[in-house]
Design brief:
The chain is an alpha+beta fold. Helix content is 14%, strand content 35%. The protein has a 12-stranded antiparallel β-sheet with strand order 7-6-5-4-3-2-1-12-11-10-9-8. InterPro entries: DUF6593.
Length: 207
């Protein structure tokens, strides 16, 4: 499944499938312009507003650790520091290398398997199963050959079938991509494309 970002901004985007249906939307509300604190809410189509909320990510100001709230992790409502959800090393024996692996983050999936996000040069962010190294998802750019965005060059999240909940893929991707862009000094490296436009009517989530 390909989910195209419209716009290409992890804090304010809609993830749209190749047939033009919106599967997820990210909205961010600034709580304080001075401190930089904000709350990003990830929603999806559902009968009620409460059911539509996939996760809330609170970006703390003044260098405080952000937190994420969701019931996706184990079926119950949880609030976790982001650095506990997405950690730098799957084992204490790699502790000495943690500070050298800024482009890698691990997390425990809803299926009790460990997964790893890694930024791969020339491709983008790639999610794999840490044990089998099977690719689960990747965030990359390409010219769309079919469907709603045919002929356009788009950034998209490509998700492969697996036992990992797609909600967890989206939550961890949004966190990883937002933090990656925060750390990039070169605006071109952020790769926010000016030609990303809102999809036409017919999406599953209203803007």
């Amino acid at each position: 499944m390909n989910l195209y970002l419209v716009h290409n901004d992890p804090e304010r985007t809609t993830l749209v499938s190749s047939n033009g249906v919106a599967h997820y939307q990210v909205r961010t509300l600034r709580k304080s312009m001075l401190s930089g604190s904000a709350v990003s809410t990830i929603i999806r189509p559902a009968p009620t507003m409460n059911e539509s909320i996939v996760a809330e990510i609170e970006w703390k100001g003044w260098c405080k650790a952000p937190i994420v709230r969701s019931n996706v992790f184990d079926g119950t409502a949880q609030e976790l520091p982001v650095n506990e959800l997405l950690y730098k090393s799957p084992s204490a024996k790699f502790g000495a290398l943690r500070d050298l692996c800024h482009s890698k983050r691990y997390f425990l999936g809803n299926d009790d398997k460990v997964y790893r996000w890694k930024v791969v040069k020339g491709i983008g962010s790639v999610l794999t199963c840490a044990k089998t190294r099977k690719e689960i998802a990747r965030f990359t750019e390409d010219v769309v050959t079919e469907g709603f965005f045919r002929g356009q060059k788009k950034w998209y999240l490509q998700v492969q079938p697996s036992t990992l909940d797609v909600d967890m893929v989206v939550i961890t991707f949004i966190i990883m991509e937002k933090k990656r862009r925060d750390e990039v000094e070169d605006p071109l490296a952020v790769r926010v494309l000016e030609h990303d436009e809102d999809p036409a009517e017919g999406g599953g989530i209203e803007g």
